[in-house]
Amino acid sequence: MFGYPILVFDIETVTDVKAGSQLYGLDLPLDDAQQALNKLRRQEAGTEFPRTPLHEIVCISGLWIDQDKFQLFSWSRENFSEIEILQKFVGIFEKKSPILVSWNGGQFDLPVIMYRCLYHGVTAANLFEQGDWNPQKRHNNYQNRYHARHTDLMDVLASFNIRNFQKLDDVAQILGYPGKRGLSGYHVADYVKQQQWLDLSCYCEGDVLNTWLIYLRWLLLRGFIQQAQHQDWIRHTILYLQQQPQHAEFLEIWQKTCLSTVFTQSDFN
Hints:
The protein has 10 helices and 5 strands; from the N terminus they run βααββαβαβαααααα. By secondary structure, it is an alpha/beta fold.
């Protein structure tokens, strides 16, 4: 139906304290350096959210959809170093050329991945190819925001206008989906510090699932799928999640939130 495999993805990050300390000339214990970096960032930008090069990836989650596969996956720091996570992710694009789907992936996720590949010396030729070596990818690559090779839903739904950008959580809830279920990215550092790896991967996969559900609605809006196909995919997603115990809460909340709109009321019928 889609023509290509689809990869819906999301990343979770923490501050790279080592790189930040090097940048600002800090010689402090880890916790003190973290606090100092937070203070410096608040002074710079009014937020503790780090500059793009100072994000360290602790988890990449994805949903892979192909003719014979529908599978959630996560690679976290529980089992892999950051460089191994990057190598696994960019390795997908050496073997396949999926349609990439994200929420804010063009503004955040891919730039962070690019900087971390630079930091670790990881080659990601196909992911960051822009037509220099392959002319066919000059106007059909993962960096071009106006083509479907990478569909950044936040960007697309805003008509590529920053003033119209919306939060994933808000759009998901408006459309009758679970959203972040009261969680936020501020929990990520605590998950890592306390080694709550299942909570981390579930949180990241939750963002992936919300993005997937919004993407299905986007495909319906564009006429790429019809309503019957949309409902088939909704049922397929529900049946799959019923076999994933870690997402029982996501399903439970979805059963409630779907009642908030006429269009989604029949999701679980």
